[in-house]
Amino acid sequence: MEKKTVKPYMNPYLAGVLLGLVVLAANVISGRGLGASGAVKSAIVASVETIAPAHAEAKTFYNSYGEAHGSNPLNSWLVYQMLGVVVGGFLSGIISHRLTWKVEHSPKITSRRRLIFALAGGILFGLGSQFGRGCTSGSALSGMAVLSLGGFISMAAIFGTAFMLAYFFRKLWI
Amino acid sequence: MGPLVVYEVITENTNLFLAFFIGIGFGFVLEQAGFSSSRKLAGMFYGYDTVVLKVFFTGAITAMLGLLFFSLFGWVDLSLIYVNETFVHSAILGGVVMGAGFIMGGFCPGTSFCGAAIGKIDAWVFIIGLFIGVFIFGEGYSLWEDVYKAGFLGSPRISEYFGISEGLTVLLVIIAAAFMFWGGEWAEKKFPREDY
């Protein structure tokens, strides 16, 4: 079997224009922007409601979500959109020959170390996305697209903090 | 006239169905841009790869301009489009916590699902972390409810907040982005890396 070479990435400015058109389409069709962390929240609320209904009933975070979003948290716009993201990413991986199981990390650190920091980073991002009422997609990108003040604040706080902390975590990446 | 779902051009079920296809476009573009690679994303913060800056700001500007012109042509009613609410305190707190998560984890939520889709195990682990983080927030909600709800300003647009027109706001963002793109191109030459 001949080995297929990995195709180069798209020009970033072209990718940006296409990304902007996707955000525009979401707003024109659905009157809202994109998002990612909201789908994780839906899944958590649905899980807690299923596994521990009494607990979900007693806690504000879970029961207020049900009041605002109807009976089934998984039947939401962002959940369907995120399923699409996985399919879209997978299709792109197929056509560019990038499908491969891999832990990506700097040669200076072990896979184990990379995974520990990936878990810690994920926990912080999950927590922060709830305070921020959305993540890089929902609050920063989509918020900025509609000129939301909160979107600009989120963008500045996320990227500003990452820049300020970059020095301390440089061994993970360079 | 848009938004299509608000004007009942499409039904709520069609809206959810189209969300799936919008997601496909989103995931496809992110992966094609290289956002499935944590080392490429993290390059932004060390200058060796500023693809995040270029894609993010080009995307934001394209969407801003698109909405502005669609509104001028009468194709979309901007007053019916969701504008994120602004809670100053928790927006800053959340952003700081997310920024720390970004530099440690190398992904944001959207890009982690994209990385997971092509088999990045670090992205799968990041996603497990996301679920844990959201669960922690839910369980401890009563502890931080006050901070979460403080500093509420409504849903202001940045143009309204500073009392300038939307067109001028977008122009200023474009000018700022042009400088940042120039800085990004400079940084990639100054801090080059080939081996990631």
Structure write-up:
The complex is a heterodimer of chains A (174) and B (196). Chain A has helices at residues 12-30, 37-51, 53-58, 60-69, 77-95, 111-131, 136-145, 149-165, 170-173. The model of chain A has no long low-confidence stretch (mean pLDDT 94). Helix content of chain A is 70%, strand content 0%. Chain A is an all-alpha fold and 174 residues long. Chain A folds into 2 domains: 1-100, no CATH class; 101-174, no CATH class. Chain A starts with 11 loop residues before the first helix and ends with a helix. In chain B, 68% of the residues lie in helices and 0% in strands. With 196 residues, chain B is mostly helical. Chain B starts with 11 loop residues before the first helix and ends in a 6-residue tail after the last helix. The chains are: A mainly alpha (174), B mainly alpha (196). Chains A and B meet through helix 1, helix 2, helix 4, helix 5 and helix 6 of A and helix 1, helix 2, helix 3, helix 4 and helix 5 of B.
Q: How would you state the average pLDDT of chain B, rounded? A: 96
Mean pLDDT of chain A: 94
Structural class of chain B: mainly alpha
Major sheet of chain B: none
Number of helices of chain A: 9
Percent helix of chain A: 55-70%
**Net shape of chain B:** globular
Tell me the total number of β-strands of chain B: 0
Please tell me how large the radius of gyration of chain B is.
Answer: 19 Å
Name some characteristics of this structure.
heterodimer; A: 174 residues; mainly alpha; 2 domains; 0% strand; globular; B: 196 residues; 9 helices
Furnish the topology, listing elements before pairings.
The complex is a heterodimer of chains A (174) and B (196).
Chain A: H1 12-30, H2 37-51, H3 53-58, H4 60-69, H5 77-95, H6 111-131, H7 136-145, H8 149-165, H9 170-173
Helix pairs in contact in A: 2-5, 7-8
Chain B: H1 12-33, H2 38-42, H3 51-72, H4 88-105, H5 109-117, H6 121-139, H7 141-149, H8 158-162, H9 166-190
